Amino acid sequence: MILEKVINRIEIQSEYKDFVDKYKDNILTEFKGKIHSIYMCGSIPKGTAKPFKSDADFTIVCVNPKDIDYERLSNIKDRLLEEYPVVSKIDTTICSIDDVLSKPNEWGFWVKIICVCIYGDDVGEKVPPIIISPEFILDLNTETKKEVDRRHSLLSNASDNTMKTRLIKGYSKRLIRALYSLVLEDTGVWQDDIIKMKNAILNYSEIDSALVDYLYACYLDSNVLVEEFLGIADEVYSYFENALNAMAASRTSFG
């Protein structure tokens, strides 16, 4: 079964059009000649963004990610957030053309399936069709442990309540995404709707439903004790890791 693109048509709401154009202009001016293409994912290109609540998620593809200075990128973000309070947060992911083409089940999946191109030549079109398989799911989760460990560390050391709330929300979503990847062979489609992800996990996986419901509740309202959340998060990741290891072992035994 071949994965289809999450967003087939860009439908940016009027409240966000100037912001998106300004972001592109700022990036292209600041890093002149170093940008191959720019992409978006999430609610803004889907046309479902909620003013003052929705994030803006961009991906920059270039020849060499080291050409993109993070401090200059952060300055652009800060200016735009001040000018456009309708956007709650700006996230920018950076990768190389080689990343996309040489890692089709990781960066290729991200650019081809999750993102839509808003500037430049869409390198995702050069990525071969992505077939849902255990191999794809394992490749997709190559960096999951590293990412989970990073989020765990950040949350453990966070002292600001606003930051704690944001980290718990993001950590919850990341774990739900990881769990959803395990049931891709059952659903046949990548979802970016958190409710549909949660329901599919409950329908197709053997994880304790209370753990999934807890993560979803924390995604909606992150006002929980950090220690309690981290305990649940560790339990969820333990289930995920065991399931992933079983998938890898099964692939090896049949390979």
Could you give the distance between the termini?
A: 20 Å
Biggest beta-sheet profile: 4 strands, mixed
Q: What fraction, in percent, of the residue positions are helical?
A: 55-70%
Order of helices and strands: HEHEHEHHEHHHHHHH
Strand content: 5-15%
Nearest-angstrom radius of gyration? Answer: 19 Å
The shape, in one word, is globular
Q: How would you explain this protein's 3D organization?
A:
By secondary structure, the chain is an alpha+beta fold. It has 12 helices and 4 strands. The chain has helices spanning 14-30, 43-46, 70-83, 97-102, 107-114, 134-140, 144-157, 161-181, 184-187, 194-204, 209-220, 226-254; strands at residues 37-41, 56-62, 90-96, 116-120. A 4-stranded mixed sheet has the order 3-2-1-4. Strand 2, helix 3 and strand 3 form a beta-alpha-beta unit. The chain is globular and about 50 Å long.
Q: How do the strands and helices of this protein lay out in sequence?
A:
Elements: H1 14-30, E1 37-41, H2 43-46, E2 56-62, H3 70-83, E3 90-96, H4 97-102, H5 107-114, E4 116-120, H6 134-140, H7 144-157, H8 161-181, H9 184-187, H10 194-204, H11 209-220, H12 226-254
Parallel strand pairs: 2-3
Antiparallel strand pairs: 1-2, 1-4
Helix pairs in contact: 1-3, 6-12, 7-8, 7-12, 8-10, 8-11, 8-12, 10-11, 11-12
